[in-house]
Every structure is written in structure tokens, then in C-alpha cells.
Amino acid sequence: MKLLRKDYTDFWSLKTIRENREGRVNMGRLVKQKKLASVLIMLLFTAVILAGCGGGEQEGSSSGREKIIRISEANVPNIDPGVGSDYASSIALANIYDTLVFPDHNGDVKPWVATEWEISSDGLTWTFKLRKGVKFHNGDELTADDVVFSMKRMLTMGEGFAYLFTEVVDDVKALDDYTVQFKLKKPFGPFLQTLVRLYILNKDQVVANLADGPYGEMGDYGKAWLINNDAGSGPYMVKELKKQEYLYAVKFEDYWGGWDKDAPEAFKIIGTTSPSTIRTLMTRRELEITDQWQTKEALEALDKIEGVDINAAFTGTILNIMLNTKKAPTDDVHFRRALTYLFDYDTAVNNLFPGCKKTVGPISESLPGCSKDLKPFDQNLQKAKEELAKSKYAGSLDKYPVELAWIAEVPDEEKIALMLQSNAQELGIKVDVVKVPWLSFVDQIAKPESTPNASLVFVSPHYGEAGSILETRYHSKSTGTWEQCEWLQNKEIDALIEDALGTIDFEERLAKYDVIQKKIVDLAPTIWAFDQAEKRAYQADYIVWPAAERIKKGEPVTPVMGYMYYFHDFKVYPDKVPH
Q1: 20, 186, 237, 376: which has the highest count of C-beta atoms within 10 A?
Q2: Other CB atoms within 10 Å distance of the CB of residue 555
Q3: 314-532 adopts what CATH topology?
Q4: CATH fold of 98-207, please?
Q5: DSSP string over 58-96
Q6: Is the separation of the CB atoms in 119 and 183 below 8 Å?
Q7: What are phi and psi of 420, to 5 degrees?
Q8: Which class would CATH give 1-10+56-97+234-307+540-579?
Q9: What is the DSSP string of 103-139?
Q10: Claim: this prediction has a pTM higher than 0.90
């Protein structure tokens, strides 16, 4: 779950109207000619509206519409590759920056900036040959030094996706301009898959924009500059970023991957999930793809708009009700098990989130490594009563209410929270439902004592394997982050995860993932509410979304967060926009 956004109405329409009114007053004062002022303002108003809608004249488009993909997200992305890691940021980074390898829809990775690689027999040395002629957005050529710089920056800063590498990468060096070598501290089976999160920065450009900071001679490592600028080589480059409003990026003509004539010339990530705003923008054809947080009712309304389809994809995302194992009463395993048995899974997937499916545990069935032995969860009130009777809180439930937090920016989560509250009442458990804005929630869960007893959070995989979820969700190093509000801190689980990730053989690694999942299920740190069908409305009449086309054919799509929205491969047909 990744989001931050105030509940905006139709921002640019209100903004331009307001500016128009102010302009009219000022114009009247200056020239004192109402008729002339009115004409000028009407012309200005029309121009601004056209600009806001992406209506500027574009070469090759007889309709005059810009070839753009506009997508709503719950927040405006953080475009610093060493910091951003949420959903919106993952979409932006995949389009602005290049990586050594790229996640394929079949669950594997394919050559990208790296054209080939070799692995030592002990699994500790990885050597990559780089593609020649890859240009950064400022025209510099991408070399091995840039890859080295990008990895060392991430390791030093320790933010964003750094957790994938901090305990794995021992050293990285450039053997020549087009050869880079990684030395690992220990064998790490999914190392190749994790490299889809090593976004390559232009070293010289970042170093030229250092400010004072805590990283020695590197100052702030370019963090202040990278808030609003990019140093990438991806298909799009940042044109404008307005915090709490949008990111706008335009086509990089010299992109090494080339361009299809119908490819988007720009993309825009708009930070809002307001159903009324989304519906208005979709109706006006000012938004091509919605966020995944629209309510069931909102999606039904969107589906009625001419030319709009609903895409539903299983990409490894699960709605977790995370139970704080360090805070009464959810510190008791029997109490937690009681909660997992009383939750009404059928109502969740059939009525509240139709199209989703019941989970078998912490790993989505769409991810390699999901246990084949675990069965989907079902409500069982008798077992819930039996477990509650074993709990140390059985005789004093009135003294230990359960605080349940749902995220304000995802309205449908309230339905799940209220259902759990109702389910719990049947066993005499009091549940206090609390609505929390995302940023407040992130601050709140930094310590176990301030973390709610239960927290509703969607979590997606960072790379295409079960180890991604097991590490970020249940290893002790992720406690205090939004991805693990359970505060599990179980040394046995930590050791098992580390051992599995250190296993080079793929099938052997998957077998170890299976054991870990069964142990986690037994500890009941989470109510796995459902395996999410990520639903987004999109303008099917005039855009071609490759992942959506695959889903229509029953083909798999990449589970790696953000990469279903690699806009370079989309197509936009402005002449087909309904009027």
C-alpha cells in the first residue's frame, strides 16, 4: 500500500477558473474596458483548459491531442531511485531510469542495459557486459562507472530498495567502460531478479548537483536535486513535478530502445484517488488509467462510461490485516488465531471486493514459490472460540480492545474494517476502527508501542519471487516500516528466510519458501484478507495497454510492482478518442 494524497476535486478546472476570475478583475482595473477584458480572458481561459487537458497540437496527430498516458495514483511519486519504493514511485522509476535487467511477463528477467552476464561457480561473483551507446537524458553515455555509483549510493543511503542489497553486496567495480562486476558477501539466489530495482543514475550529473549533507564528500548525494530532477536514461525524462499534484514526463528522443510511431509522447502521474475527480477526468478523456484504490461503486460507475473498460490483474498483491505481536491483546498467539478464524473471507471476496480470491497464506498464488500445500482460509467460529479460550485474555476481553487502523486514502478498506469489527463482536471482542491518513500511519508504526493492534495494508512484491514478500514482510529488518506492522522479530523465521534466499538452486529455494510459509501461518501474525485483483478503469477505445491485452488472452503479467505500466510499450490513438 503506497499512498499520500489530499482529497482533491477537479484541481486544474477549479484552478483555471479561479485564475480566470482573478485575471478578469485585474484586467478590468488596468484597462477599464470590460468588453476587451472579457474577450482576452475567454481566449486565455480556452488556452489554459486546452493545455491542462493535454490538448496542444502534436505532430502526426490530426486530432490535435497529445499522445499521453495519464494515470492516477494515491500520491505523487518520489523519483529519487535511492529513496522511492512505493507504487507510484515504482511506476515513475521504471519509465525514467534503466536497469541492468528487465522483468518479463513470464516471471523471469531479460537482458536490458546488460546484454549478458556470467556467474562464478560459488555464486559470489556476477559479471555483466553493458550495452554500448546508451545515452542519459543529458546526452552522456552510460558506462560501468554509473552502475557502480548507483549501487554504492544506494548502499550508503540505505533507503528505498536498498534493503535488497545492503546485506548481500560486498563490492562493485568497473572492470572497463562496459563491464561491471559485483562481489557478494554470501550466495543470494534471487540476485538477478533484484537488479530490476537498481536504477542507474548519471554519476557526473548527480555529483554536479550535490548539496550539504551527511555523506562526507558526497554531501547529500544529490537528494535535494533529485526531488524534482532526474539523471536517468529511460524512455521518458522529467519535465515537471509538483508535490501533491502531479509528475509530468516527456519522451526522450534518443532512447536506446527506439520508438514506435504510436507510442505515448508523455506520461503524467496525478496524485488523487477522489472518486468524483476520477470519474470527471475519465468522462472528459483527461485520464487514461485510474488508480487501483477506486471503490466497487466507483468502478461500476466508470465501467458505464463509453469506451472505458475495467482491467483486473493478479500481480501478487495481498490485503494484509497486520497484527501487532508486541502489543496486548494481539501479542497472544491464540488471540491472533481466533481473529484469523473469525474473519469472513467469503464476504470479503464475493461482496466487498468481487473478483478477488481467498489466500492460502502470506504469498499470492501468482508468485513463484507460493506453497502448494496450504489451503485457502475460511471462517470457522467454533475454532475461533476454541483459540480464544486458550488466550490469556479470555477472561478480560473488555479490558483489551483491539485498535484497527485503515488507510484514509483507500475508502474500501473501511468496509473490511467494519466487517472484522462485526465478526469480532460475536466472540465478545471489542474492535475500535480508526481512519488514519497514510503519512500519519507511516509515522505511527515506527515503534511497536504506537503501532495499532491491527493495520490494513496492501503489499506487492518488489521482484518476481516469494522471497521478496517473505523478506519485506516477515524478516526482522523490515519492522517499523509500513510493510511489516506485525513486529514479528522471530529469529527462527529470520534464519530460515536468509537460508532460503542464499540458496542458488531455484527448485531447492522454492521448497524452503514452502517451509517458511507454513511456520508463519502457524504463528498467525496476519489475517490475509484476500489476494487482490488489481482493478483499474482505462480508456480501451484509444489506448493499447500491453498488460491488459495479455490478461484478456489469459496470459500472465509481471508481478513486479510498477512494471505493468512501462509506457514505452503502450500505444495511443488520439483520433479514436470518443467525442
Answers
A1: 237
A2: 11
A3: Dipeptide-binding Protein; domain 3 (3.10.105)
A4: Dipeptide-binding Protein; domain 1 (3.90.76)
A5: -TT-TT----EEEEEESS-----TTT--SHHHHHHHHHH
A6: no
A7: -65, -40
A8: alpha beta
A9: E-TTSSEEESSEEEEEE-TTS-EEEEEEPTT-B-TTS
A10: no
